[in-house]
Design brief:
single chain, about 150 residues, mainly alpha, rod-shaped, coiled coil
Amino acid sequence: MKKIIGNSRRPHKRPLSPAAELLSTVIPQCSSTNADESSPASDPQTEYADFLLRQHRATSNDSFENSIAEPECTPGPAIDLTTVHLDDTARMQRAILAQQLENARAEHTLKLIAIENARIDQKLKQIELEKKRLELEALHFGCRGRVAPPLV
C-alpha cells in the first residue's frame, strides 16, 4: 500500500492522481478511527475497503466500480440532469407555443367564416328588401287609372 500512496518514493515523478491523494488522506483517518474502536481489522487495506464500502452505501446505488471511477467533488450527472431538464422545458415550451399558434389560426379561420356568414346574411336581407320593393311597385303600378305616388 505504501508503494501506491507514499510521496517519499515519488519526488521526481508526476504528481499523485486524485485517487492516490484520496488514499493518502483516507487511510490515516481510517486507521486512527478504527484504532479507537478497537476493531479486529487493523490491516490498512481492510480499513480502506471498509471505508469505500461505507462511502459507496452512503452516496449511491450504482455499482462499486462506478463509485470509484467518479470523484466525489464533481457534480457530473447533476449538470447533465440540469441540461436535460432545460432541454425538456424548452421542448415543452415550443410544443405549447405551436399549440397556441394552431389555436390562433383556428380562431382566425372561425372569425373569417363568421364574417363571410354575416356578408351572406346581409346580401340575403338586401335581396329580400329588393323583392319587397318590386312587389310594392307592382302593386302600385298595377292600379289602373290611378296615378302612383312617387316612391321614396
